[in-house]
Write a structure and sequence with these properties.
By secondary structure, the protein is an all-alpha fold. The protein is built from two helices and no strands. It has one domain. About 85% of the residues lie in helices and about 0% in strands.
Length: about 50
């Protein structure tokens, strides 16, 4: 019985991890323009560009 519970737990856990990826992408995707501005200013400030 314990082995069956472990198998169910692993399947649910892996399913949750698989579903988490798209949510994380949707959270940081809208901030790309701000991140580009930040790093552009950082490069100009450091005289690397």
């Amino acid at each position: 019985m314990a082995r069956q519970n472990s198998r169910v737990f692993i399947l649910i856990f892996l399913g949750m991890l698989t579903a988490f990826g798209p949510f994380v992408t949707d959270m940081y995707l809208p901030t790309f323009p701000e991140m580009a501005d930040f790093f552009t200013h950082l490069l100009r400030w450091s005289n690397w560009a």
